[in-house]
Specification:
Elements (H helix, E strand, L loop, with lengths): L1 E3 L2 E4 L7 H12 L7 E3 L8 H9 L3 E4 L6 H11 L2 E4 L8
Parallel strand pairs: 3-4, 4-5
Antiparallel strand pairs: 1-2, 1-3
Helix pairs in contact: 1-2, 2-3
């Protein structure tokens, strides 16, 4: 989900891939993505979502964390200047 100024501007739903869901949410957000926050209900174990967020101008990402590869996402966020918050609570399970 992408949000800015108190409203949701893009949602990526029903995707079997986290990158597809992120791309869909960013596409729906259109020009509102820049400076927005990306929220994920599942952890981001790879840097691909962070890279897509950086391309769109996302300013912060909130996610549950807990992946063995969290450091990959953290590194990509740091390199892109994107703040990343870990909630420690995973909402999506499979």
């Amino acid at each position: 989900m992408v949000a800015k100024d108190g409203r949701t501007t893009g949602i990526g739903v029903g995707q079997v891939s986290r990158i597809w869901a992120a791309q869909q949410a960013l596409e729906h957000a259109e020009d509102h993505a820049s400076g927005s926050v990306m929220a994920s209900d599942a952890f981001l174990p790879f840097d691909d979502v962070v890279i897509e967020c950086a391309r769109a101008g996302i300013g912060a990402i909130i996610q549950p964390g807990g992946s063995l590869r969290d450091e990959d996402s953290v590194r990509a966020a740091n390199e892109a200047g994107i703040a990343m918050v870990f909630t420690g609570v995973r909402h999506f399970r499979h």
